[in-house]
Amino acid sequence: MDRTYKKIELVGTSTESYEQAIRNAIEKAAETLRGLAWFEVVEQRGHITDGKVVEFQVVLKAALKLD
Amino acid sequence: MDRTYKKIELVGTSTESYEQAIRNAIEKAAETLRGLAWFEVVEQRGHITDGKVVEFQVVLKAALKLD
Amino acid sequence: MDRTYKKIELVGTSTESYEQAIRNAIEKAAETLRGLAWFEVVEQRGHITDGKVVEFQVVLKAALKLD
Amino acid sequence: MDRTYKKIELVGTSTESYEQAIRNAIEKAAETLRGLAWFEVVEQRGHITDGKVVEFQVVLKAALKLD
Amino acid sequence: MDRTYKKIELVGTSTESYEQAIRNAIEKAAETLRGLAWFEVVEQRGHITDGKVVEFQVVLKAALKLD
Amino acid sequence: MDRTYKKIELVGTSTESYEQAIRNAIEKAAETLRGLAWFEVVEQRGHITDGKVVEFQVVLKAALKLD
Amino acid sequence: MDRTYKKIELVGTSTESYEQAIRNAIEKAAETLRGLAWFEVVEQRGHITDGKVVEFQVVLKAALKLD
Amino acid sequence: MDRTYKKIELVGTSTESYEQAIRNAIEKAAETLRGLAWFEVVEQRGHITDGKVVEFQVVLKAALKLD
Amino acid sequence: MDRTYKKIELVGTSTESYEQAIRNAIEKAAETLRGLAWFEVVEQRGHITDGKVVEFQVVLKAALKLD
Amino acid sequence: MDRTYKKIELVGTSTESYEQAIRNAIEKAAETLRGLAWFEVVEQRGHITDGKVVEFQVVLKAALKLD
Amino acid sequence: MDRTYKKIELVGTSTESYEQAIRNAIEKAAETLRGLAWFEVVEQRGHITDGKVVEFQVVLKAALKLD
Amino acid sequence: MDRTYKKIELVGTSTESYEQAIRNAIEKAAETLRGLAWFEVVEQRGHITDGKVVEFQVVLKAALKLD
Fold first, then answer.
1. Chains in touch with L (≥3 Cβ pairs < 8 A)
2. What residues of chain J score a pLDDT lower than 70?
């Protein structure tokens, strides 16, 4: 059977790491979406305050299966 | 009158061809969305089993008109 | 607190300028979406009739905060 | 002997497949141009009507030898 | 009927805006070419003299229908 | 268990279609390589003779699992 | 005589237009730098508040001649 | 003496982090290859199950010196 | 008030992680620059010795506000 | 006065160097075109026979002023 | 007959020129590989010591015919 | 010890070759900057007068070590 997926684009943030920023975005999205299957990192950025990195930001695409 | 479109990203699959994978994704999306107007191919991939191509996968963006 | 954003892709049009095409797309999207925070221009195109530019078209991504 | 080629950019269309859209564009170009030697696919798009793919569109570059 | 388009690449300039630079390039091209249908912005640049922007330059592709 | 894959880059050709060019490249590679799992299309080109498309060429990456 | 240029990357903002955002960035840079000769637009973004575009942001590279 | 390097493309996986996925791929490759000198990250992806990130996947190129 | 930022490009290194390599680069830059506001990851690389990853290297752009 | 340029794409070849391949392509184009003003290198390739580089090939865009 | 090629990625170096760096990489690869047919330049870099360019480095892909 | 580098972007010119244009830019930059370690070619362009190539222009990034 041919399957179809939809991709959505998310931005996640974390004060710790990009991996945590990804987990945060995926878990937030999973609150309202079912069938999330994979993700792809699109961009990595972050915020600086007083000369320190205070936030990691990740832009990612997540794919979910359409029923 | 100025028009506005929304673009969505889809992944379609087919055991036959990329054209069929595109048709499958568009027809699946059209079950729940009206006003689909055009699409753009973003990526072409596929699955291999036992040294044979068993699935063509296409990532595409489809645009639909917002009322 | 870690925030999560969703990005959507829009196409706006205007007979005047790209800035107006962007405003048209954002204001149309804001009719049904809350929490729009920023946008990024992805592509600039346009339509020609009888050797004259008759429409500016802009493809953009807009990010909205997920509650 | 050093050879020089010129590349032109074409858009071909077909209701059937991308291969046919390419053939249509090359054969149309060959009506007025001689020495076409190779082509490169740049973009693949298409048109949707009533939730069905009704046209495949291919953007390609074709190279022709300058005498 | 399958249609074929040719794309040409142009550079337009204006002391006012990118929209005017686009219009200038398209109108110049339309003096000798018929069937111009759409354009795509490829690059935006400009010239600076004495610390002031004195010219906006736009690189664009324009498509024309082959008969 | 963490898996590792190697990606190789191949060019396949066919007088018929891109799908057949992909199948030709994968089946040729499978003569000497085991564990091929997926592929990604990188580039699509072709050859023209006497104004006709005579060959479709596809550049693709194929991934194989390392034991 | 062979010349050498240095390119710097700037972000300009304006509530009005991209052209004004470019002029703002170039004029700010010209307060401390001499010999600015040309610029290239790298990215166009903007800020949204209450569903309205409130700021246009442009990322650009500007080149200045080294004496 | 002029040196020559070969670059290979690998995909590494880890349930923990991208750094561990890179280490896994490099150490696997080093089982059979000598002279690995540097790597470049090409793509970062991952797998989702039941709304949780369960695997980080990294595509990388690694360079090895040819004797 | 319209603001202007300057972007600089940095390469940071760490034996531990990309996050630490980013922090190292930003903190080094902050020794001599004020007003650093955000960063964007451009490239991720690393060094290999005796088949082990011994250094993570990150190329990033950092933006600072011009007074 | 606003100027308009047209860009054409050429492929030049040389057995010696990329600089000579560029010169060959430009001089060939200049036989039939006036007003060539600048060029941009798009791609560098070459041909190998019996394990030796026998030809350098350069793809370039050249801009000419429209009267 | 349909042909299949494999592409490999190489890095060549030379103290003289990019052309020589390419020739060095191809001739090194030809010591162990037969059927090399063409190459494509991917990246050009170099090394600096005491303010002088001391090495040109070229990353290229070379294609060889699979029997 | 973790090192940090800064990358600057330069444009060099030469009437002879790209290698000489690179050397010119690096040697000019080295007049005022210490610790230049490597460079990367970003763009290659040139100037044409009376149908002849009269200048090669190279855009490059050069990295210098921060103390």
1. G, I, J, K
2. 1
Q: Say whether the I–C interface has 3 or more Cβ pairs within 8 Å.
A: no
- Does the pLDDT of residue A2 top 70, yes or no? yes
**What are the tokens at B54?**
């068993």
The CATH superfamily holding the domain C4-66 is Flavin-binding protein dodecin (3.30.1660.10)
Contact J48 K27 (CB under 8 A): no
A24 CB-near residues (< 8 Å, 6+ apart) = A12, A13, A14, C2, C4
pLDDT given for residue K46 in this prediction: 98
Q: Which residues of I touch A43 (CB under 8 A)?
A: 40-41
Each residue's pLDDT, cut to its tens digit, for chain C (67 residues) gives 689 999 999 999 999 999 999 999 999 999 999 999 999 999 999 999 999 999 999 999 999 999 8
Name the burial class of residue B48, with classes exposed (0-12), middle (13-18) and buried (19+) by CB atoms within 10 angstroms of its CB: buried
Interface of B with D (CB under 8 A): 17-19, 22-23, 26-27, 29-30, 34, 36-41, 62
Confidence of residue E44 (pLDDT cuts 50, 70, 90): very high
What is the rounded distance in angstroms from the CA atom of residue F36 to the CA atom of residue F26? 8
Total residues found in chain A within this entry: 67
Residues with Cβ within 8 Å of J1's Cβ and at least 6 positions away in sequence, in order, are: none
Q: Where in chain I are the domains?
A: 4-66
> B-chain residues within 8 Å CB-CB of A8?
9
Give a three-class secondary structure readout of chain A.
Answer: CCCEEEEEEEEEEECCCHHHHHHHHHHHHHCCCCCEEEEEEEEEEEEEECCEEEEEEEEEEEEEEEC
**Percentage of chain G lying above the pLDDT 90 cut:** 96
Chain A nearest-CA residue for I42: A44
Confidence of residue G41 (pLDDT cuts 50, 70, 90): very high
Concatenated DSSP letters of K1-65: ---EEEEEEEEEEESS-HHHHHHHHHHHHHTT---EEEEEEEEEEEEEETTEEEEEEEEEEEEEE
Supply I37's token pair: 């506001």
Chain D residues whose C-beta sits inside 8 Å of any chain B C-beta: 16-18, 43-48, 51-53, 56
Stretch D43-61: mean pLDDT: 98
Closest CA to D8 of I39, F9, L20, E8: E8
pTM, two decimal places: 0.97
Q: Measured between beta carbons, which residues in chain J are less than 8 angstroms from residue L60?
A: none
The pLDDT value recorded for residue B19 is: 98
Q: Which residues from B are below 8 Å from F62, CB to CB?
A: 48
Q: Are A44 and I40 in contact (CB under 8 A)?
A: yes
On chain A, the residues whose CB falls within 8 A of the CB of I62 are 48
Give the pLDDT score at F7: 98
What are I22-65's pLDDT values in tens digits? 999 999 999 999 999 999 999 999 999 999 999 999 999 999 99
Q: Which of E11, E48, J23, E12 is nearest to L46 (CA)?
A: J23
Q: Is the distance from CB of I37 to CB of I65 less than 8 angstroms?
A: yes
Q: How many CB pairs under 8 A join G and I?
A: 32
Question: Using beta carbons and an 8 Å cutoff, which residues of I are at the interface with L?
Answer: 8-15, 21, 24-25, 28-29, 59
Q: What is the pLDDT of residue A1?
A: 66
Distances in whole angstroms, Cα of residue C26 to Cα of each of A64, B48, C34, F37, L12? 26, 43, 11, 42, 42
CB pairs under 8 A between F and H: 32
CA–CA distance, F24 with B19 (Å, rounded to integer): 19
Q: Which ranges of chain H have pLDDT less than 70?
A: 1
